[in-house]
Design goal:
5-stranded parallel sheet; single chain; alpha/beta; 180 residues
Length: 180
């Protein structure tokens, strides 16, 4: 008797791991600088800012939204409000993948204060903190997530594609229980 190996007819779809995303989360929040786009040096003039997408940031946001989960950016800036950030992100396609953008200027305080995270959850329709994930690359992101009561995925020093990091984090989460 010989054992047969079955080969899938198509390569695995990297989005396949997101099939449970909407069961676990009602929102995915991302930091921008250092997480989705290359971070500009402090003091860079707004007119000199350029958007360089990191990893698979755009594809990951598209996949999250395709899974039916809204997205938001929560970002520390020195002078930019939501409209400025959206204008900067527009040509890259990132703006269209963000349902909400909240800056530290919009809320009057920078992360690790949770105000931007709390405001993003409110703007997304009142998402419960335990049903949200903040993806970031800095202690300020981790602190804001903890203070707001949302899940946190730290991607600093992580070379995996963002979509892989999300699906692997999702695999560690227990499925939600349904009331009986």
């Amino acid at each position: 008797m010989t054992a047969e190996r079955s080969t899938p007819p198509h390569p695995p779809d990297r989005r396949a791991g997101l099939d449970r995303l909407g069961l676990v989360l009602d929102a995915v929040l991302v930091d921008l600088g250092g997480t989705i786009v290359a971070e500009a040096p402090p003091g860079t003039a707004v007119a000199d800012l350029r958007v360089t997408i990191l990893r698979d940031g755009l594809a990951a946001l598209r996949a999250v939204r395709a899974a039916g989960v809204p997205t938001a950016a929560v970002t520390n800036t020195a002078v930019m409000v939501e409209a400025d950030v959206r204008s900067l992100l527009g040509p890259s396609g990132l703006d269209a993948q963000l349902d909400v953008v909240v800056t530290s200027v919009d809320v009057g305080v920078a992360k690790p204060d949770p105000a931007a995270v709390v405001e993003a959850l409110r703007r997304l329709g009142g998402v419960a903190p335990h049903r949200a994930l903040l993806i970031g690359d800095a202690d300020a992101d981790a602190g804001a997530a903890a203070a707001a009561g949302v899940h946190h995925l730290d991607i600093r020093d992580d070379d995996r594609p963002l979509l892989t990091a999300i699906t692997e984090w999702l695999a560690t989460q227990a499925p939600p229980t349904r009331p009986q």
